[in-house]
């Protein structure tokens, strides 16, 4: 085995020597520029690395023929020609100014167009060309643009834009988005079911310069927004409209760059994230300034690890607003509502758990048509300022809740706030024939008890008869047939669950 390994190493070394020698002989006798020299070295390193792959040894000679002459100009489309190299479109090769001093709109759009119209590897969804993982590399630059960056055609996927800063200029359209994933006006006449699929926007800082929004994703499928910082927007930091499965994670959004306690917090406007589609997820995201952290008008969305301190509810702000009366289908877990509340209109199928609410932040169930069904608010922590704010509050200013079913508010803990629940336990000690237990202080819904369990414990020598005599106005009355000294234990439930 050792001999085979030694022979294999010698063979590779000889092959590399032959290739390097042949390559050097092809150069005319002249002085290289630093750019050509480094490019040649990178090509040789790429080729050498390919030789170590078992599937590349046999094709080494054909791979070598793909090298261009060092005197020829590099293609602006591909960053490095060579073996096993991905399609990387470096924007500075198109004339983009990485200092941000001059407008780079046309250069960035040219790079995007080349990537979108480049070679494909078949199809993803029907009508979506697979671009094979093409990358538009911003090279860590800071680029100024004067209009939205859009793909020139719909029906493409498997593309990434990453690695830099893009800022809107002073004449950027006020209703535009820095990156706009919507069909271009000069796109195809016949559009696929979805505009784009598997577009990744990663490691970007987007500065809207108080003119419009950051990212717009329209009717797209499986879009990734990862590790982005979006600021100075006036409309939406991120807008998702229609489509499916946009995943937003590890990102920071704020209209103003602040870390809380901003003296102008009352004037914050705009929305951090607007979800107008289904089946999306927001994970490990911070929204640090905006009037509304997340506005949701689509079903079946999930939120985890979200921290909202965008604009305090006391100043008129909202952390997460679920504007889906009648069919919410939303899950919020392991999140941090920092002086900002969650508001849900006529919630149907809503789960909120394992989250922390600070500074009198709470959950507001807002009646539009009097419906609340399938709501689960459990295992959360609430901390307030002893102002009597309820952890879960009913807003019945439009109409009272009348269709109430399967609502569980339980196992929450509160400090400095008023605990509310749909399940409650109380005990009373007394001497007499009647015990009236009042649950109004803790039960969420008025005049609603659907299940009662009680026990009566008497220390006397007699065995009194006892019965549940009345349940109304969130009060339970237990009576005995004779006066006794007894303890009464009562559990009530406002849900219809057994």
From TrEMBL:
It comes from the Eukaryota. It comes from Glycine max. The gene is LOC100804107. This is Rhamnogalacturonase A/B/Epimerase-like pectate lyase domain-containing protein. Pfam families: Pect-lyase_RHGA_epim. Residues 1-21 form the signal peptide. It is found in: Secreted, Cell wall. Residues 91-315 form the Rhamnogalacturonase A/B/Epimerase-like pectate lyase domain. Keywords: Cell wall, Secreted, Signal. InterPro entries: PbH1 (IPR006626), Pectin_lyas_fold (IPR012334), Pectin_lyase_fold/virulence (IPR011050), QRT3-like (IPR039279), RHGA/B-epi-like_pectate_lyase (IPR024535).
């Amino acid at each position: 085995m050792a001999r085979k390994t030694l022979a294999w190493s010698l063979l590779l070394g000889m092959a590399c020597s032959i290739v390097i020698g042949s390559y050097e002989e092809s150069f005319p006798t002249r002085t290289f520029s630093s750019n050509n020299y480094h490019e040649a070295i990178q090509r040789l390193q790429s080729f050498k690395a390919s030789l170590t792959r078992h599937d590349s040894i046999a094709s080494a000679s054909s791979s070598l023929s793909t090298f261009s002459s060092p005197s020829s100009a590099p293609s602006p489309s591909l960053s490095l020609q060579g073996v096993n190299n991905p399609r990387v479109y470096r924007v500075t090769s198109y004339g983009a100014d990485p200092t941000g001093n001059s407008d780079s709109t046309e250069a960035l759009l040219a790079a995007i167009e080349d990537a979108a119209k480049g070679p494909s590897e078949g199809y993803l969804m029907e009508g979506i060309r697979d671009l094979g993982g093409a990358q538009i590399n911003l090279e860590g630059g800071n680029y100024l643009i004067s209009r939205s960056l859009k793909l020139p055609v719909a029906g493409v996927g498997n593309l990434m834009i990453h690695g830099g800063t893009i800022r809107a200029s002073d004449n950027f359209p006020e209703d535009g988005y820095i990156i706009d994933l919507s069909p271009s006006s000069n796109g195809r006449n016949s559009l696929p079911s979805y505009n784009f699929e598997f577009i990744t926007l990663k490691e970007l800082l987007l500065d809207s310069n108080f003119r419009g929004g950051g990212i717009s994703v329209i009717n797209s499928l499986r879009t990734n927004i990862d590790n982005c910082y979006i600021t100075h927007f006036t409309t939406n930091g991120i807008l998702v409209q229609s489509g499916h499965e946009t995943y937003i994670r590890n990102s920071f959004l704020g209209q103003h760059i602040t870390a809380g306690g901003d003296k102008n917090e009352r004037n914050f406007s705009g929305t951090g994230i607007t979800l107008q589609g289904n089946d999306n997820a927001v994970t490990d995201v911070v929204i640090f300034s905006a009037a509304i952290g997340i506005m949701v008008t689509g079903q079946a969305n999930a939120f985890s690890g979200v921290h909202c301190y965008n604009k305090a509810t006391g100043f008129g702000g909202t952390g997460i607003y679920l504007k889906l009366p009648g069919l919410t289908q939303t899950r919020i877990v392991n999140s941090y509502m920092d002086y900002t509340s969650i508001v849900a209109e006529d919630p149907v199928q809503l789960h909120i758990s394992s989250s922390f609410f600070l500074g009198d932040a709470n959950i507001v169930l807002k009646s539009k048509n009097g419906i609340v069904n399938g709501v689960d608010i459990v295992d959360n922590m609430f901390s307030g300022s002893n102002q009597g704010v309820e952890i879960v509050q009913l807003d019945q200013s439009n109409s009272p809740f009348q269709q109430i079913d399967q609502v569980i508010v339980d196992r929450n803990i509160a400090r400095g706030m008023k605990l509310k629940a749909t399940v409650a336990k109380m005990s009373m000690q007394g001497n007499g024939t009647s015990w009236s237990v009042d649950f109004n202080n803790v039960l969420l819904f008025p005049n609603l008890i659907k299940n009662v369990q009680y026990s009566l414990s008497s220390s006397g020598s007699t065995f009194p008869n006892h019965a549940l005599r009345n349940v109304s106005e969130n009060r339970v009355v237990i009576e005995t047939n004779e006066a006794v000294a007894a303890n009464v234990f009562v559990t009530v439930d406002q849900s219809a669950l057994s």
